[in-house]
Amino acid sequence: MVLELACGRGEYTVGLARLHPNLNCIGVDLKGNLMYIGARICLEQRIRNAAFLRTQIDKINGYFESGEVSEIWLTFPDPQLRLSRAKKRLTHPRFLRLYQQILQPGGRIHLKTDSPQLFLFTLQVIEIYGLALHESRDDIYASQELPAELGIQTHYEKLDIAQSRKVHYICFSLPTGSLPDLDELLHQRIKQDGQPIA
């Protein structure tokens, strides 16, 4: 089972379901009017291995059992640029601890974003918490070989809201044991590095 969290219109959920008919792909978001677009495509095109769940991301562990999810995709989530909103970033340890409860051991988390700030923040989290980094691309379209999964484009990617003209990608996994309590160190590091104010 693969989750796309904060899926918006569900382009990635639908795209992954098309690429991998053997996987169950579930898009999760709070905005039902956006998810309806992806759900309608699935109904019209008879894509039977995709579904959508309307809930808040911080309640995700109430819907899936331990080890039920093999991968999580975070595609163009709100980067929450204000320092005071850092805990709302979907790669903050607060959320990683929730993902850890439902991911299989070694399950992978994929981040695709046009926000250089969220990209660098996530690399900081990986470094500080000693997470397993599998892949990091500063600009996926600069690469000659692009995996089909990374070629799926969302509505927000096409808008280039961050105006970075780059799409960043990170793939990482969480340890089997609990994440260490280094949240204060992380907070001090991002405060020291300076955060943009939206």
Describe the protein in words.
By secondary structure, the protein is of the alpha/beta class. 31% of the residues lie in helices and 22% in strands. The protein has 6 helices and 7 strands; from the N terminus they run E-H-E-H-E-E-H-E-H-E-H-E-H. It has helices at 11-19, 32-44, 93-102, 116-129, 155-159, 183-193, and strands spanning 2-5, 25-29, 50-54, 69-75, 103-113, 132-137, 168-173. A 7-stranded mixed beta sheet has the order 3-2-1-4-5-7-6, sandwiched between helices. Strand 4, helix 3 (93-102) and strand 5 form a beta-alpha-beta unit. The longest helix is centred in the middle third of the chain and has 14 residues, at 116-129. It is globular, with a radius of gyration of 16 Å. The relative contact order is 0.17. The model has no long low-confidence stretch (mean pLDDT 92).
One letter per element, helices H and strands E, the order comes to EHEHEEHEHEHEH
- The chain-level mean pLDDT equals 92
Biggest sheet overview? 7 strands, mixed
Helix run count = 6
Low-confidence stretches: none
Instruction: Assign an overall shape.
Output: globular
What is the β-strand count?
Answer: 7
**Helix coverage percent:** 25-40%
Topology:
Layout: E1 2-5, H1 11-19, E2 25-29, H2 32-44, E3 50-54, E4 69-75, H3 93-102, E5 103-113, H4 116-129, E6 132-137, H5 155-159, E7 168-173, H6 183-193
Parallel strand pairs: 1-2, 1-4, 2-3, 4-5
Antiparallel strand pairs: 5-7, 6-7
List keywords for this structure.
about 200 residues; alpha/beta; seven-stranded mixed sheet; 7 strands; about 30% helix
